[in-house]
């Protein structure tokens, strides 16, 4: 069964790179550039994994992660937080993020982290 990943990233270039990478790996994608867009798309279908940027035009990815991890419908879904700010790593841990990716990122590293979380979720 194809795994669905929701990417919340306001930078269109980064969103495009992640989309290209993950579609090439056979993942189904939901893409959002804002928190409001994410919330609207979650009404349609829940993903198997979230990738969330910290700096967003209408919110903070750390707070979104915390909200997702405290919601009974999404708390079981792995969340990867992405940021160029090194302080965000500690904050993402406090928000119960399952992993953290520092920008700029290595594409192979991103795939490894995603695959690890999705395999662990499948076997758990």
Descriptive notes:
The protein has 124 residues and is α/β, with parallel strands linked by helices. It has a single domain, classed as Rossmann fold (3-Layer(aba) Sandwich), CATH 3.40.50.2300. Helix content is 44%, strand content 23%. The chain has 5 helices and 7 strands; from the N terminus they run βαβαβββαβαβα. It has helices at 12-24, 35-42, 61-69, 87-94, 107-123; strands at 4-8, 28-32, 49-53, 55-56, 59-60, 79-83, 99-102. The strands form 2 sheets. The chain has a 5-stranded parallel sheet with strand order 2-1-3-6-7, with helices on both faces. Strands 4-5 form a two-stranded antiparallel ribbon. Helix 1 links the parallel strand 1 and strand 2 (28-32). It is globular.
Q: What is the CATH H-level superfamily?
A: Response regulator
Rough shape?
A: globular
Structural class call reads alpha/beta
The chain-level mean pLDDT equals 92
């Amino acid at each position: 069964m194809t795994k669905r990943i929701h990417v919340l990233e306001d930078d269109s270039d980064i969103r495009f790179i992640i989309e290209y990478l993950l579609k090439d790996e056979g993942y189904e994608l939901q893409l959002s550039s804002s928190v409001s867009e994410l919330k609207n798309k979650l009404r349609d279908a829940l993903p198997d994994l979230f990738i969330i940027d910290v700096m967003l035009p209408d919110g903070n990815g750390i707070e979104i992660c915390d909200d997702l991890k405290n919601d009974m419908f999404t708390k079981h879904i792995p969340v990867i937080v992405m940021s160029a700010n090194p302080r965000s790593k500690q904050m993402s841990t406090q928000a119960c993020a399952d992993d953290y990716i520092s920008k700029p990122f290595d594409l192979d590293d991103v795939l490894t982290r995603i695959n690890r979380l999705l395999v662990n979720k499948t076997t758990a």
